[in-house]
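hey so u asked for the seq, here:
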Amino acid sequence: MLGGTPLLQWVVDRVRPHVGQLAISGDPKPGFILPVIADERPNAGPLAALCSILAWAERKDFPLVMTLSCDTPFIPRDIAGVLRKTLEDHDCAVASRGGVIHPTCALWKTASRAVIETTFDSGVRSLHGAISHLNAIAVDFSTGEGPGGDPFFNINSQMEMAVAQDWLAEGRQLP
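ran it, structure tokens below
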């Protein structure tokens, strides 16, 4: 909970107006009535989850899939539009800040599934590794909301949660 709101709800609220369909990858989340995309290869990491997501999108005839991490509550509100405008003839557009890419925050062409599956089958398990096998473009979001101006501020510990709560308490962000 951040500011009394579940982290996942922050992400949902920021992207819902900009995407056609929301879904949760992995296990169902209490309180969220969204389609759930189960991992076809359980416990095999984020790249396996991406393979499952792309297979689901392919069955739905969705040409694009955006992935976002549920622990990045300050993602740019316009991330979907900015990545879409930049994607063009690339396989994926990946958010970055200051030269650091954030592969969980990316827009993927569903057509890239075959390459990603082959990459996974070759032993690669990371999103970074998959991206290196694709025609990918990094899209810089150098400014934004979040502690330190970091829109990809990631909350994985109690200390990071305290930093985010303090930042909110200073009135710098409205949920």
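The longest strand covers residues 100-109. The chain has six helices and six strands.
lmk if thats what u needed
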